Amino acid sequence: MPGGSRPTSRHRAGDGSATLRGRAFKSGPWCADDVRVSENPLLSVIPFLHALSSTGGSDLHVKVGSAPRLRIDGRLRKLQVRNLLPADTRHMVTEVLPADLVESFAETHEADFAFSLAGVGRFRVNAFQARGTCGIVFRRVASGTSTLVELGIPEIVGELALEPTGLVLITGPTGSGKSTTLASMVDLINTTREVNIVTIEDPIEFLHQDKKAMVSQREIGQDTADFMTALRAAMRQDPDVILVGEMRDTETVRAAIAAAETGHLVMSTLHTSDASESINRIVDFFPPYEQKQVRIALAQSLRGIVSQRLVRKADGNGRQAVVEVMVNTGRTAEAILEPGDAPPMVDLIRDGGYYKMQTFDQHLLALIRDGAVTFDDACAVASNPQDLTVELRAVGLIA
Questions:
Q1: Could you report the per-residue pLDDT of 77-126, keeping only the tens digit for each?
Q2: Residue 24, H or E segment
Q3: Phi and psi for 130 in degrees, rounded to 5?
Q4: Under DSSP, is residue 203 helix (H, G, I), strand (E, B) or coil?
Q5: In this predicted model, what pLDDT tens digit does every residue of 82-94 receive, in sequence order?
Q6: Who has the most CB within 10 Å: 78, 131, 306, 379?
Q7: Are 169 and 257 a contacting pair, CB within 8 Å?
Q8: How far apart are CA 88 and CA 66, in angstroms?
Q9: The CATH number of domain 148-358 is 3.30.70.20
Q10: Spans of all domains in the chain
């Protein structure tokens, strides 16, 4: 296991803070386990973060009663160390928890923050309590940003990023690469356009330096109270592009749509599986008497929806993004306005090749054809494995 190193970000644990944090946690039921420390020296989380970085894993999971595990290419792999004690995980929390979150963590038993480790990388962190003991999950954030081409993202996504106004959504389940794609879109704008970009994130994951554009990054809890407050303030900061890390509530969605309607490019994420579900989710944020107006606003302001899943590469070296792309055209706008009177959105996407639209299964077929992914792995993430199999047979890729 690689050796330890001191954290160097503004979120690092300060000297002498363990005593303070010990007092903050003293109401927890794990305090009795401190007597085990002399028999089992406390484990530090720092070597595990080295291991996460060196293996190219995406996540580190730390919990009591189990050895730490790394998620590598989608699978959890157990590290060869002893099972963790309550005192171990409590100590790991004190190593990384920002000083300004100590009291709130003691009260709410959960915290989200970013953590940087010199020479290792930057991580998105969630600390929590489970059955009276501490647990932590670290998500590794790649240093720097990759281009959309390097990520294997279709060209049309870059075109959506360079739209002058409107709403662009990146959707998918947790861990599907939404933040990575958004960061690459911001970098593309930053590289090619002389504009003002304001990002509102929880927490900040990818750091952007000014290129052609100016980029101001604001972190929830550190620089602003919440998404809604920051989004309102952003409208007074002369923005051209606004990135909202996640649309979580009605007021944030309302403000994001309003910003898109008034001449700004707004990019954000949703935890939805595809374009159709994304539209329904946005509409469902609002009471029934507002939903018709929301559909009208979406039909006018939406530029596109990019939905992502990850699949293992055929060579075993990492994972590949599988992408559904919906571009808002006259026909898709009609489907947003009157979903009952229009063809299903997935059919419009499937037939929208002229506008560079594609479904998940169309992208998977191309990846299988190019040898990038295997048939079995593709079927595991396909929207309709049976239809995909039929299409592959029709083009002679499988018997």
A1: 999 999 999 999 999 999 999 998 999 999 999 998 889 999 898 899 99
A2: helix 17-24
A3: -135, 120
A4: coil
A5: 999 999 999 999 9
A6: 306
A7: no
A8: 11
A9: no
A10: 45-140, 148-358
